[in-house]
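Weekly structure sync, notes
Attendees: PL (lead), two postdocs, one rotation student
Agenda item 3: pending single-chain targets
PL asked that the sequence for the first pending target be pasted directly into the notes so everyone works from the same version. It is reproduced below exactly as submitted, 313 residues in total.
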Amino acid sequence: MTAPRTVIIGAGMAGLACARRLADAGETVEILDKGRGIGGRLATRRTADGWQFDHGAQYASPNGVDFKTVLEAARDAGAVDLWEGGSGEEHFVGVPGMSAMAKYLAKGLDIHQMEEVRTLSPVNDHWAVNTETAERTADRVVMTVPAPQAAKLLGPAHPLSARLGHVKMAPCLTLMAAFGDAAPVPFAQRRDASDDLSWIACNSDKPGRPGPGCWIAQAGVAWSEKHLELERDDIAALMLPMLCDRIGADPASALFAAAHRWRYAHVATPLGAPFLKDENGSLWLGGDWCLGPRVEAAWDSGTAIANDILGHS
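Predicted structure, written out during the meeting:
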């Protein structure tokens, strides 16, 4: 008898956690992702000049034993290390970038990048999963994209779309700036929810990062919502003086500055459950939006989906 075939849409932490658990149990799994890289917000941007930035999730700080065990194993493998960042707390970061955390989980998995799913529909006893370049069939589908994207793909008539409508997500605009040796380093990281730049970090302070003077600044929700639809160059032009004011640098000394738009960065109102599942037991939806704005929440959701599948195989 042929093993059930699972297609996972999304190669962020939730999708990778689900695939890793299923593959390790001997299941047939294929991951489709629309991006050039894997990891979702476990992202690392590298420039032609050698600058490097963790422009999405800054670190992972586990609360649960199971997730900490995964991070410790990744640390033993050299893919993760600890970063205190002057906070007195231990944060796990990928080495040499946050994307290394995703790549560690992805080893040996069947992942297809630059494949955006355009349509998803049930056909008899299976699912038809269609991208721009290929048509696939699957016995089971797991969607780990942001809740608004999942709702769009399912369509308003699907029974799960109403549940997705209760989830609220918020954007984050991020600045990546490099100063080399020219910039002062008044702190390694700073969080201030009352500031338009709610998070600032010296990326170069993290272990294993190449080059000095690389900074990340992430705007708060209100500022991000106000400026969300600006061109990225315009966003960078607004955020660079703000960052320089906070760290005491001259904007003219910046050697590189670029912005990134995370449209669904923050989980404002989570689902309140690890995942959603259709009545036929062949479609699962999950991600950090199920449980909260943490890397661990995405891992918990993906792992819970995999355990549910394995428990009902």
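Discussion points:
- The first strand starts at residue 5 and ends at 9.
- The longest helix spans residues 295-311.
Action: rotation student to compare against the earlier draft before next sync.
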